[in-house]
DNA sequence: TCTGGGGTCCTAGGACCC
DNA sequence: TCTGGGGTCCTAGGACCC
């Protein structure tokens, strides 16, 4: 048996931990740059606000209902997520952290053990739900079923129908069949924007309909083995296994840092400053992964929403002679790549730096290949930079090319973040101070 | 005026090898 | 006149997830 634990309206729930008076009110959290709505409280959903709606479109409705709106506060959400995941690691035999707000549990063997103790998986799920709420103040739901895809499906039903009190265990074939009838095909894990309309045109409306298609049909219409796995999983045949915490020791394939600018930018120094800053950020990520990269992509994009026709994005990929994790070296390549892309008189709205061809690479490998007597010192320099920036905050020490002009001006590209709450749990200056009878508590 | 960010996997097709 | 078979590696593109 697999369980899927999913935090309800996660970002909104994180904000409510520190502002309990927001309970019962419509609340939304915005994406980077205060662009789109990416988390909604139940009250906001009831207003008809859809996931991913641009904020400016929903603002009149939100204002009319006195809704609270927050910029995203990833330091906070990341920390709350870690608390939930470490709780799960203590109460479940095996945990796979699937996203910031979801985890799969492998409950093999649990059922017999619980029955032996006159309990059940449903009771177990309810206990987890109650304890996570009480200790971390985050509401969750849980679906339990013989496959991951069915656990996702059960979770969806548990979330929608209050009858289940947030926990649904599909403990028999009959219950699985019943559950499949409840869920539209568009809500099946793995069926997205493209496949859903196609399936509906073929008369496949529910998850139950999808579970009945033939293997050949699934392969032909749903992207080969991927579709086949979805169908089998719905039929109760496990095709997806738990992924161990180290990802099976598989290194990642890419790291990226991309951002929409706060305003359109045309001047080369402004765009160079952005691309340089993104390069240093992505290089930091790369070193945190313990990798080196042998390809670097820079892209810059025009607005997708203006009168201009596509293409909107211009990108340039360089193959590096030797894999590297040195910020200064990556900056040199990024500059070259950008120079070939930028067109005078054009306004750009977004840029990004993507590193691919990642290989596990530390100091030893650099020494082996780089014909430089300074390789070891350079690696040490990067380590010191990372140490300083971790301790005193990102960007404390950087490279001059990140600045847009000689006056040290930086950040014409910086996005909006006008409604961000404090990093209550991860930044000392932002920790609450409570003054009780003249006694200051940090 | 204002429209996010960062990943994954799979397939098909081309270049190349013996 | 008749022109094989079996691989690998890489990339682009298309789908998906949160």
From TrEMBL:
Report the record's Gene Ontology biological process terms.
DNA repair; error-prone translesion synthesis; SOS response
Asked if the Swiss-Prot or TrEMBL record annotates the protein with the keyword DNA repair, the reply is yes
Q: Which GO terms describe its molecular function?
A: damaged DNA binding; DNA-directed DNA polymerase activity
Q: Which InterPro entries does the UniProt entry name for this protein?
A: DNA/RNA_pol_sf (IPR043502), DNA_pol_Y-fam_lit_finger_sf (IPR036775), DNA_pol_Y-fam_little_finger (IPR017961), DNA_polymerase-Y (IPR050116), DUF4113 (IPR025188), Rev_trsase/Diguanyl_cyclase (IPR043128), UmuC (IPR001126)
Q: Which Gene3D superfamilies match?
A: 3.30.70.270, 3.40.1170.60, 5' to 3' exonuclease, C-terminal subdomain, DNA polymerase, Y-family, little finger domain
Where's the UmuC domain? 2-192
Q: What Pfam families is this protein classified in?
A: DUF4113 (PF13438), IMS (PF00817), IMS_C (PF11799)
Q: Which UniProt keywords apply?
A: DNA damage, DNA repair, SOS mutagenesis, SOS response
Output the Gene Ontology cellular-component terms: cytosol
User: Record's family?
Assistant: Belongs to the DNA polymerase type-Y family.
What's the protein called, per UniProt? DNA polymerase V
């Amino acid at each position: 048996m697999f369980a899927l634990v999913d935090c309800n309206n996660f970002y909104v729930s994180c904000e409510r931990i520190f502002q309990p008076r927001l309970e019962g009110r419509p609340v939304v959290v915005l994406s980077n740059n205060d662009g789109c709505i990416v988390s909604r409280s139940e009250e906001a959903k009831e207003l008809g606000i859809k996931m991913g709606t641009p904020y400016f479109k929903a603002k009149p409705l939100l204002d009319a209902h006195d809704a609270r709106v927050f910029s995203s506060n990833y330091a906070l959400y990341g920390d709350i997520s870690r608390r939930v995941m470490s709780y799960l690691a203590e109460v479940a035999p095996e945990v796979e952290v699937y996203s910031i707000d979801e985890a799969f549990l492998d409950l093999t063997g649990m059922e017999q053990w619980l029955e032996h103790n006159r309990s059940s998986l449903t009771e177990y799920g309810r206990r987890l739900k109650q304890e996570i709420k009480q200790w971390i103040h985050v509401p969750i739901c849980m679906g339990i079923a013989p496959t991951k895809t069915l656990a996702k499906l059960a979770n969806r039903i548990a979330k929608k129908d209050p009858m289940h009190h947030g926990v649904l265990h599909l403990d028999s074939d009959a219950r699985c069949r019943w559950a499949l009838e409840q869920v539209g095909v568009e809500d099946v894990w793995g069926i997205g924007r493209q496949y859903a309309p196609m399936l509906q045109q073929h008369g496949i409306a529910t998850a139950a309909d999808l579970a009945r298609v033939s293997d050949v049909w699934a392969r032909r219409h749903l992207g080969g083995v991927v579709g086949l796995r979805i169908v089998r999983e719905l039929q109760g045949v496990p095709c997806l296994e738990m992924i161990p915490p180290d990802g099976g020791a598989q290194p990642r394939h890419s790291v990226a840092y991309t951002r929409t600018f706060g305003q359109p930018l045309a001047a080369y120094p402004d765009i160079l400053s952005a691309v340089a800053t993104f390069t240093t950020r992505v290089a930091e990520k790369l070193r945190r992964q313990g990798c080196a990269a042998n390809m670097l992509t820079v892209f810059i994009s025009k607005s997708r929403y203006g009168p201009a026709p596509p293409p909107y994005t211009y990108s340039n990929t360089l193959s590096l002679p030797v894999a590297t994790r040195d910020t200064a070296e990556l900056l040199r390549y990024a500059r070259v790549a950008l120079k070939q892309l930028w067109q005078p008189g054009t306004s750009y709205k977004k840029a990004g730096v993507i590193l691919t061809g990642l290989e596990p690479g530390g100091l030893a490998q650099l020494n082996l290949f780089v014909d430089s007597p300074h390789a070891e010192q350079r690696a040490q320099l990067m380590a010191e930079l990372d140490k300083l920036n971790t301790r005193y905050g990102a960007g404390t020490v950087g490279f001059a090319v990140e600045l847009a002009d000689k006056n040290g001006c930086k950040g014409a590209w910086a996005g909006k973040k006008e409604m961000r709450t404090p990093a209550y749990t991860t930044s000392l200056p932002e920790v609450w101070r409570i003054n009780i009878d003249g006694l200051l508590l940090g």
